[in-house]
Amino acid sequence: MRQSFIEDSSIPKDLAEDITKVAREAGTTLIGSVIGRGLFFITQVIIARFLGAEVFGLYILGLTILKITELISRFGLHTGAMRFVSIYRKESPSRVKGTLTSTLSISFINGIVLGVILFLLADLISRIIFHKSELKNIIQTFAFCVPFMASMTVVATASQGFHTAKYAVYIKNFIQPSANFALIFLFTLLGLGLSGIIYSFVISHIIALMVGLHLIKKLFPGLRDRTLRPDYEIKNLLIYSTPLVFTDFLHFLLSWTDIMMLGMMRASFDVGIYRAASQVPHFLTLILNASNSIYAPVIADLFYQGEKERLGKIFKTTTRWVFYITLPASLIFIFSAKEIMSIFGTTFVSQGAIVLIILTIAQLINCTTGGVGVTLTMTGKQNMEFGNSATLALLNIFLNTLLIPKYGVIGAAIATTIAISTINIVRLIEVFLLYRIHPYDLEYLKGCLAFIFLILVLFILTYMDLPNFISLLTNTVAVLGIFILILMRLGFNGEDRFIIEKVRSKLVFKHGLEGAGQ
Length: 518
Hints:
Blueprint: H1 13-74, H2 77-88, H3 93-129, H4 136-143, H5 146-159, H6 166-189, H7 193-219, H8 234-265, H9 268-279, H10 282-304, H11 308-335, H12 337-341, H13 349-368, H14 372-378, H15 382-435, H16 444-462, H17 468-490, H18 494-516
């Protein structure tokens, strides 16, 4: 009978339990994220190919302005709803009802007001800020989406207050992107063009909001119960939520500064090229984000218990496996950049491939340093991490201002890469100075050796001058196959084998055995 890894003496039992949490839950989060990101990416490809780089750039600028308006209209209430629901879900149904009804009502009303303001200011924003008068109608159409988008976000996040993530995944990662995809296909057939694409986005959020309301009523039937009187705590809710607007805005700046500044300084064609190229490296962050979503509470618990040694070990193990997974994908993105960008259309290839390579390097560095920001936040250094994020945003703005006028989309990519690399190295140093831990050990050399060998193989494949699709397929098969073979040849330690067993049993055998037993 095969010995369980949790009984393997090569791994301390407490470390095995920590790894089990991360491996089990991160897999579920990752699957939902991959589905959502995949649907979003396919939709972006279709839109880009249909509209072309210039009009696609206008669409992205309109979407960016919508996101700013929606962020302000929800006023941090999505996080406030999750927190207050989590606190009151067992002891006070009336307060849960009050929290849900007040956050949804306030965000929807705010959305209507700010949507009207956005509609009226569309001409001013288009001409004065972005110097693109053709952006006006796009902004005005997107303005109708503000209340629905804000309320959908509140519903999805509030559902997590009931200690389940699946409903948020359904709403944000499946319902909305699926509806958007289907409607774009329909409206394109009807010949509605850009207007139809924007209508699809608006209607998909209305659908997602309606589904979200149905699911939240399923989670909390008290919303339907007219005899249950809501107990409102609007003052406390606003006191908690209002500061989060600044945090949310900071996160927005971190993600959208380059797009905004390209829109202000360059043509919409450049915005379209950059946006298309920047979508691909985001797949790398799915791995890190999935790991961090579960790694965070584990780290908080270990730090509270004073288990610094265990904290250091789980830090090393999770970072190493994020590196193992993102490294092959990064090499595929870098050596198949032209082939990947050709998916969006021929006009996206020449500059887009360079942007893709530069931004892939940025995200590889981000993933290689592991959950350093999460480690700081979960160990009580949230103010330090807020300072790091603010510094990153300011550095990115400064570098974009410096580089975009001269180098365009390439300058924006370089600015983002320098900013991300610098701040992650700073975080790494901070974690080491504070706790004397770092995410690297000799096991990392396996990935580095594989990295060197794979680069040599990919250079050889590059000179074969294969057709685009064949080249992309060949590079992918070669990278994945050789990387796995090298790691297997070099061998795994007990912690690595434990993770492999947990992922294997979760994704392959668990459901098969359950089905066989029925």
